[in-house]
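Bench notes, afternoon.
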Amino acid sequence: RTVQVLDEAAETLRDETLRQLVESMAVGIAAMDLEVTATHREQVVAARRRAEHASASQSVLALGGLLAMLTNAPSSEAAGLALRALHAEPEPLPDRWSLPRPALLQIICTLVFTERDDEALPLVDRLLHEARTSPSVVSAAAAHRAVVALQRGDLLGAEADARSSLETPGRVAPALFRMFNRAITAQAFIEQGLLD
């Protein structure tokens, strides 16, 4: 339903930059769900192709990197698009925009899961600083930092980041990140020998 609402909103926008931003959010969400991806396959393929252009915008490159990673393209290809996005000129956002750029989370996700930890961690810290008032963004950032810790063998760090996102009073993370953080916590416990 979220993808449909974003698609409908994008169709009504006259500002091309804002329309592309909303479309990239819709495709990014669609790419996370196999059933939704199947019905939006043309959009996903078109978004991935747009990232190959030399003049692609930051949001198009970030989405392209995420889609490359999600579709099992070589990790160097996905990370390359994410790094191009990181260094691309950001599009202007509406004055009332209060969250970090959607592209930033897509860049982080791609870099973390292509094991570009050194590039990802400073971005995660920046995201945590910028998004203190957004439970969903804080949960996402903490989950990605926990994955890096797990990949590096820092089991206590992985557990701490995942649990902090789950246990902070007044903060209710979206279901996706609650499950993600619980899985990271369980994996850290298993690797520490605390669970079978």
